[in-house]
Amino acid sequence: MQMKQLIKDRRGVAAMEFTIIAGVLITLLVAAFDFANVATQQIALQSALKAGGAYLQYFPTAGISNVTAKIQQALPDGAPTVTVQSIQCYCAGATTASSCPDSTGSPACAAPWLMRITASMPDSTFWLPLWSGTISNQAKYEIRIQ
């Protein structure tokens, strides 16, 4: 008789359902926060690369260390350190990189020419490392110099 009463008893069912659903919802909420954090970092990196590109436009002979310093200055306080992988120069219409301007500011080709900055930031996620995927904060910025 006790077993029939226990099977018919529905008290606490809502609490059990809430417990199951709450775990899934909290996981989704944390993941959404993490993706938003990564997107914010990507936007900050793109904006900082734009500042580095503006610096290169006026100082095309600047080295990677100077451009990296300008990009880092453009990032918000507390942002991870940026690594500039390369600064490449392209002659108009060329598909392969040529030599960048020398100390006199003379490029290997006539104007217009392009400069491309490639940079990255380390990931700083809260939840995503527990998952198998990786997110890379890399960006490229291209400026035309005339």
Give a structural overview:
- With 146 residues, the chain is α+β, with helices and mostly antiparallel strands.
- It has three helices and three strands.
- It has a three-stranded antiparallel beta sheet with strand order 1-2-3, covered by helices on one side.
- α2 (13-58) packs across α3.
Number of separate strands: 3
Shape summary: rod-shaped
Unreliable spans are none
- Cα Rg: 26 Å
Number of helices: 3
Instruction: Work out the count of structural domains.
Output: 1
Helix amount: 40-55%
Q: What proportion strand?
A: 15-25%
Read across the widest sheet, the strand sequence of neighbours is 1-2-3
Order of helices and strands: HHHEEE
Q: Mean pLDDT, rounded to whole units? A: 80
Sheet with most strands: 3 strands, antiparallel
Structural class category: alpha+beta
Distance between the termini: 91 Å
SSE layout and pairings?
Layout: H1 2-8, H2 13-58, H3 64-74, E1 83-91, E2 113-121, E3 137-145
Helix pairs in contact: 2-3
